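User: Some background: our group keeps a shared notebook of sequences we're curious about, and every so often someone picks one and asks for a predicted structure to add to the entry. Today it's my turn. The entry only has the sequence so far, pasted here. Could you supply the structure so I can complete it?
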Amino acid sequence: MFSLFRNLFRFILWLLVILVIVAVAAALYLRTGLPKYSGEIQLDGVTANVDIIRDEHGIPHIYAENDADAYFALGFVHAQDRLWQMEFQRRIGAGRLSEIFGKRTLDTDKFLRTLSVYDYAERSFVNLDQTSQDALTTYTAGVNSYLEQRSGPLPPEFLTFRHTPEPWQVADTLVWLKMMSWDLGGNWSNELLRTKLLKVLSPEQVQELFPPYPNDAPVTLPDFRGLYDNLPIDGLVTALENSAENSILPNGLAGNPTNDLGSNNWVVSGEKTISGMPLLANDPHLSMQTPSIWYFAHINTPTMNVIGASLPGVPFIVLGRNDHIAWGFTNTGPDVQDMFIERLADNPNQYLSPEGVLDFELREEEIYIQGKDEPETITVRTSRHGPIISDIGSSGLEFDTIPNDATEVVAFSWTALRDDETSVTAGLNLNRATNWDEFVNATSYFTSPQQNIVYADIEGNIGYYAAALVPIRKAGNGTVPVPGWTGDYDWTGFIPFEQLPHAFNPASQQIVTANQKVVGDDYPYLITNSWADPYRMQRIEQLLASREKHSIESFAGIQGDQVSLMALEFLPSILNLNSSDADVRAAQALLMSWNGDMDAGEAEGLIFWTWYDKVSELLYKDELADGTEEASLFNDFWSFRAGFTKNALLNGVSATWCDNTVTIAQETCDNLIEEAMQLALAELKAKHGSKMQEWQWGKEHVTRHKHGVF
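Assistant: Of course. Here's the predicted structure to add to the notebook entry:
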């Protein structure tokens, strides 16, 4: 027996030794593929010496004798550090994921081929000015130079999927800008969600679920419910959401969670700073991922000295500063996407319009699938309003597309589906701008997505421009799919650049944007009906007003602030409960002195958020989850929805939602508030124990930096 154990021990020991040797050998092998960060590299494509100096954070500082060499070098370092990210991003935009991942991404590829973003990206290059074309071309050459001279194994993702990258194309850059636009302008999901809701709720109820911005008039929904009966809306939503979610975009392709996550920027004049010069802060809340969406870099040439956050695959600094100006972005949340219902003619390749019968533009797309010899072919139909997204088929979803004998199909209009997009020109010009006039000129090329761009310069000026193409509609408000054959709801143009929201040296000496409404009630154009609630903007303004003079340190404090004005607004509804429940009273005692600080180490924030989560469920789950057809509606609709919740619990505007439609009794909002707290506390006790004071918000409020594939 002893001999048996001794032999087993020896076997395990040798196995461990072998595993260690294999692991060390694998690590050494993989290290041979790491980028070269020191020494000298001889490359074709640059016209003079270029110095790339990495600081202690690994950030590249590029010193070049001309702009072309700088763009080449930026492409080179992007490829050095983010090759898989760039490969993955361009394949998302091109609808070519299935060539690597097989059938699992086929729905995503069908969706993106139908959306036609890469097709428009290819066409847009020829419409750019020569300077922009040259920048894209030299940046592309820099990426490809790295691919040509690199040695050793590729990054682990390439090895895992046995994939070798193709040369970079200028359209690969342009398509990713369009996909960022998609991520920051996703109104389509709300249009389809309202359409689903209208199948089970009245237009008035749906209006209440999507309340207007505080103090604005209600947004009237056109009633096209009879028209929607002919469309498989549920199937279309399922297909779009499933194919879109698999794309793994920065914030997720399906829907537009940007307003929930939020972004902040603000700028103050020298009158409000210790230094006597303007200060600008930017806090773009795109989701955490591995690797990061952003890539910090510094570019120095005789014509520009710019530093800040770039996007891998894109040849300019997106957010940053140069020797003369600084700028930062937040999302405006514009409604730049509409769905049009096209009525077919007798021929399925023709449709009706105010001018009579028109032919669809037809395009065949071949989608190659890893492991299959023959590609899958789809036909993309495009109407005068855009691609027919209801043609999207599904290989892995239980749903039927619109049948061949359908009389209507759904077209998708979006400001980024144009071949004259010039946002890359805007970015390049921003990097070189030296004053307000040049800044304004640069932003005038910005087509998509609309951003709140704040500005400061070394002359002491501050400013702001919400630049991009925002459609003007003949009628309607972009809330639901509309008839396309009448022409009544067509886009007639775009808001003139000069009339987009902007400001220069305002009397307030400060500008704050946090996705809130940025126009007055008298503004003549529609930008969106879905502004973010103003809580973050109001908190920033509170903190700016809290001291006479600001510094970099005080701005960093504002960025790190965790006080929720939304929580403080709802808190009295909890504290005013006259409850006999001991746990509820204990929670009230804990919350009595709470200042709204969502401190990760404290219990109050966790109690409040869990209560709010239960409030949302009790408010509308009974209306949206009663029966088989509507079972998915609650999950589709659930989100932050602070405006609706406030109207129900605090303003009494939507108080009827407090009643549980499943029960005979008539519940009040106080009943719902207390029941939500009881449910929240029971759930938290089960998760974290009975000692309420020891609960911690940080135990559940966790950030995960997800990898796009792994």
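Suggested note for the entry: The longest strand covers residues 376-383. The chain has a mean pLDDT of 90.
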